[in-house]
Amino acid sequence: MTRTANTYGSPSYEGRLRVHEGDDAGSKRPENGSDRARAPFYSTNALTRKDPAVSHAITRLPSRRHFKSRSGRSLQFTSLGFGSAPLGNLYRALNNEQARLTLEAAWQHGVRYYDTAPLYGYGLAETRVGSFLREQQRDDYLLSTKVGRLLKRCAPEQRDGIGKFFEVPSREVIYDYSYDGVMRSLEASFERLGADRIDIVLCHDIDIFTHGSAEASAQRTREFLDGGVRALSDLRSQGVVAAIGIGVNEWQVSETVARNTDVDLFLLAGRYTLLEQESLDSFLPLCMKKDMGVIIGGPFNSGILATGPKPGAYFNYGPASPDILKRVAAIEAVCRAHQVALRDAALQFPLMHPAVVSVIPGAITPAELQGNVESMQTPIPAQLWSDLRTEGLLRPDAPVVENMQV
């Protein structure tokens, strides 16, 4: 396998991951009154440009990335994907019309990768996403869902997710990462989605965050490695799905799975962001070595990288500590010095790593979706990343555009 330079100038592998410039509808920015210079969402792969309004090098992210799974099938990700947890009435209730308007806005803006899971509203998000996508041409988008949770009907007062998911079906979660459990979970997802094809299936939440302890996580991981991953591999080899992997909140368990299996993809929530880069220690280099792709969820670390270090800001699903608030304030100061919004830098940063195929922030409303698109369009000076490094706010080994020899 030949080692080459990728779009961002960091070493990559000439193999399964590709980038190319997009040419779909949606390349023009909606008129919203902003006077901030922006690049098209479907932009070229050029690393720098000369612009009368921008006198220094600026980031140019590819609009789409091609990934070839071990099944031999080529998957075309949009750099900006759609995370559907909010459509499962996470933290607030949405009606079906509100959810559909947000999905329509995503489609109109050129988003073509949609991720969902049984957990999100206990089937509600899958139902809403599936209802919308059934009206689109099937080859025009990628769809992923997750396995490992079986949903059982129960009394309303006994349901899971009270206080977190609102106005959702009354369901009790049964974790099952065995061979049969994965098969049953996926069959139920096919029915809720109303789909004939699911492109990517991910084992969901075998991490400490979900199961409460390292011991419990290790037990669930072993259950998956002994059974569930065989089910996913069989589904891939039979052509039922194109790619397989896991979706978790921690890079450590992702590394365990990467070392012990031949999965294709990892959906990693919040662990490679402008605020956190520990996954560079060993996990992301391992993904590069094994030609495994990474989808980044939670790019705002539960909110603080979108809202800034305001009182009550959330980090990793809870109130941010004083140390986190201080660090984010320092990052925001560097962004402000370059006239770049913190959220814009946060959304684009993960995509500069060559293993990353897409970033999938959530959106509740069309306005939030448009904000995500605009964050992807914002020109970011290469000097911003350099200044973050100089201030000790960004790891020296984090791939950034300034590494490229133009």
TrEMBL record:
Composition skew (Polar residues), residue ranges: 1-10
Annotated spans, Disordered: 1-39
Extent of Basic and acidic residues compositional bias: 15-38
Domain of life according to the entry: Bacteria
InterPro entries (alphabetical): AKR, NAD(P)_OxRdtase_dom_sf, NADP_OxRdtase_dom
Domain NADP-dependent oxidoreductase: 80-388
Protein name, UniProt field: Aldo/keto reductase
